[in-house]
Amino acid sequence: MAGVRLLGVTLLAATLLAATLLGCGDGGGSTPASVAPEAVVAEERVLVDPTRGTPAKPGFDGASDRTIVTRVWYAPEAPRNDVCRRTGCALVVLAHGFGGSTMRFDVYARALARLGYVVAAPRFPLTTEAAPGGHLSGIGDLASQPGDVSFVIDALAAAARDPADPLHGRVDTDRVGLMGHSLGGATAIAATRLGCCSDPRIDAVILVAAADFIVEGFFADEIRAAGPPTLSLTGGRDGVVPSTSVRALHDRLDPPRVYVQLAGANHVDLIETYGEPGPPLLASEEISVAFLGTYLARDGGALVPALEALAEQGEDVAADL
Description:
The protein is an alpha/beta fold. 28% of the residues lie in helices and 22% in strands. It has eight helices and eleven strands. Strands 1, 2, 3, 4, 5, 6, 7, 8, 9, 10 and 11 form an eleven-stranded mixed sheet that branches. Helix 3 (145-161) packs across helix 4 (183-193) and helix 7 runs antiparallel to helix 8.
């Protein structure tokens, strides 16, 4: 396979794997139906967890509960493909970084939602750009964020059971993906690879410039090699979380695992945007769709070609499937 270091599986085996996965679906065929990005519904839901508190910090007195404003994207009607089945559509949760905003994920989220994924981005109470008193003094709340991810999954599962909710019958919590960017990547690691916080419902994880180096210090727990299939994305121009750090974590993880370094991308533009998406974000969308399709939609036909295409463009790609 030209340019791609595909370990643990030959190209022939990968092709056979893709064919097998393609043949397993119960949806509308091998070519996914979709809607236009502008047709995707985007809404905010105010989710309140009364069982957990929000700690005090400078500029904020704390609260006895956790209010998690969550932006949700979904297609108006479930497309007929393997993302959406009789049990509902696969769910993908997006975890923002330090001082992040869920709106910066809008382009990326719409790319997934138009294929049928229900996409949810929680605004973490103390590390969002809108955090009371500012986010700089809120980093200690990282310890609560894996619980926020699990709570959002619970809340959307409840919405899917409510006949009065627009998401009634639309969320399949047996197929859940999690994407975490930067500090959100640390959240995603904790939610999938720490004994304290792992949610077994998460079936695939995308770590984008993940700040793994702070995880063990904050949680006093060791990152486990075992976990769900993992895609690690990094930018060659990232001055916040260097690609060497992302690659070192990737090498510690058990397969299935995929590593992609986009040479021209920085810490932000490979996943976030304030306007028109640039080439790094479009590449991140494409590989994310292929990865999630393999592990959440049983459509493995796009992953190997997507990796080959990136390698042919000169990107650093490695996979152990």
